[in-house]
Design brief:
The complex is a heterodimer of chains A (302) and B (416).
Chain A lengths: L2 H4 L2 H19 L3 E4 L4 H14 L8 E5 L5 H14 L3 E5 H6 L17 H12 L3 E3 L16 E4 L27 E4 L7 H11 L10 E8 L2 E4 L13 E7 L9 E4 L5 H10 L17 H7 L4
Parallel strand pairs in A: 1-2, 1-4, 2-3, 4-6
Antiparallel strand pairs in A: 5-6, 7-8, 7-9, 8-10, 9-10
Helix pairs in contact in A: 2-3, 7-8
Chain B lengths: L1 E8 L6 H11 L5 H9 L19 H6 L6 E6 L3 E7 L7 H9 L3 E7 L6 H12 L4 E7 L8 H17 L4 E6 L23 H7 L3 H4 L5 E8 L11 E5 L4 E3 L3 E5 L3 E10 L2 E3 L1 E3 L3 E6 L10 E4 L5 E12 L11 E5 L2 E15 L4 E3 L9 E14 L10 E5 L6 E10 L2
Parallel strand pairs in B: 1-3, 1-4, 4-5, 5-6
Antiparallel strand pairs in B: 2-3, 7-8, 7-15, 8-14, 9-13, 10-11, 10-15, 11-12, 11-14, 16-20, 16-22, 17-18, 17-21, 18-19, 18-20, 21-22
The chains are: A alpha/beta (302), B alpha+beta (416).
Amino acid sequence: MSNKYNFDYLDELEAEAIHILREVAGQFEKPALLFSGGKDSITLVRLAEKAFRPGKFPFPLVHIDTGHNFEETIDYRDRMIARLGEKLIVGSVQQSIDEGKVVEQTGKNASRNALQTITLLDTIEQYQFDACIGGARRDEEKARAKERIFSVRDEFGQWDPKRQRPELWNIYNGKIHKGENVRVFPISNWTELDVWNYIRRENIELPSIYFAHDRDVITRNGQLMAASPFLNMDDEDVVVNKKVRFRTVGDMSCTAAVESNADLIDDIIAEISQSKISERGARMDDKVSEAAMEDRKKGGYF
Amino acid sequence: MNILKFFTAGSVDDGKSTLIGRLLYDTDSILADQLEAIQNSNRKNDDGTIDLAILTDGLRAEREQGITIDVAYKYFQTDKRKFIIADTPGHIQYTRNMVTGASTANLAIILIDARNGVVEQTIRHSYLVSLLGIKHIVVAVNKMDMVDYSETVFEAIKTKYENLAGELKLNDVTYIPVSALKGDHIVNRSERMNWYQGESLLHFLEQVDTGTQENSPLARMPVQWVIRPQTDELHDYRGYAGRVVSGTFKVNDKITVLPSGASSTISKIEFFDKELEVASSGQSVTIHLATDVDISRGDTIVNSSALPQESKLIEADLCWMDTKALDTSITYLLQHNSKVTKVKITDVVYKVDINTLEKHAADDFRLNDIGRVVLKTAEALAFDLYGENKANGSAILVDSRTNLTVGAAMFRALAD
């Protein structure tokens, strides 16, 4: 039986992710796919097409919109939804602020990243989602390295690392009590490089900000941040124009750019292969303390 | 390039986290900012070098206690392979975590401290490896630097382990003397042990062939989802979506659907926008049948020429994973691939003392206990024995009061 050998590592990761997506469809009443506009959730969308076409997706896409988006991401999102013919639900952080549910941070490093957790939890409650599919990967961060593929959250969205269910073989236990929900991570076993190689192989379009482009930036805590109305700037901030790209797509006020000339996917893959900064290294939200991610996950973050 | 999943058994004292840290470090799999975070942390080795173990100790509670209490997955890649490591704790109170980590592994690394040799936990770890049916084993004799890189010490440990391997029917064992702390024989061969003629650990992991032995020829596809677009142009479309967990299906194969026993022929195998002639173990596909058969999630499509066993009474090895002990008077849920049915444990045949491998009768079955039980299911299962086909021979038990996964079952025989 030599078939196994033609089945390369990307095929294996893909087949595993499709299996997980189909388990979500089979085990839950009201699942949703969390779509951020980033490459990981774009990969999830392609995997969902492979899992369920020519049928419809058995879940809507949910975008938690911080209001501080890169224009290119929203443009991409809307074109993608039109192509797919699937349903999009938008949870708005601005609305959470307007309703007084959260308070906007102030100061130089203010960001809406922390606020989106509340909007996410409200959206889950409003639509009664029992499973939320996300694009997190275990190689991103060491708290994530221990999270299950089916990760149960309590009524308050909290993750309890000490009460995780054992996850054996390829059997996923999605049984929950009312009010709880499960975060599902189909690409847990993929690395950043795997995602890029898959995007290249599948010829998947990405938002243009992933590729090198000219942009006005400032340097903040040693990192390049896009100059935008969402960033609290003062006289100390010097705006310069540089050729940059983004390695993740998040809120404009907390996603740092890297200087780069990589304007083709092959160049990006070459750059990542040699890179000495991990992709979450470009996220200011992880820099706060060594346990930053663990704390945010316990609070209901993706 | 394919994927090798391996798991490491050993305790903190054996230098397990250091070994994994060393593999990541020496294959350039640690990025600059991660390394910086580690260097800024106040954990250092006695000689001031960075403590590689901290790379795998993920959760704060673990960092505080300095031990690994869960399963952490780590990833690295060379030109030859992608590797997924399940890093599990080695102490007896974390047996369930080891069983979890071992359940998906193709290979196990058993760490032995060269100063201590084969000890109680070596027996325990090796037993778990045999229980979970991991075919390839590497015995890494670590801390060779602490025994002057002595060949005599290594050979004595090897001889002792060979007896244990014989007893547990572990046929494929490779012995490598290493020092994770100093980097000997982890990625590169070491000049400090010229008496050792074998490969370095990484080189071995890159070469080991895991394909042939593990791929059961029994063709099985549990149905996860039925695709029915019900649009005007796809009015009659009905595709059975699932992952081939073992064996191979081909177009025109005669198949049987279980539990109904209905038979049909495969008319088409689809994968997204492609039509396939063949779907093999591991592939997620959509199967179409030539005739109308009533099939839903939880059913299994199998090749008619090699049917699985069907029974409501099954003898299984069980590992208990919950702090609440097994209760033989209540009904649990059993999840076998995509099928869920009610189950009772009607008999505890014996429990195994996993430190001595002795079997004994037992009245109770508690967290981390392992033994043979009889399962009685509400609906008949279409299953294979774990030793012949892991993917269709394993199940989890769920406590419907708490929804927790409380047991891992490996089917061993039909019960009468």
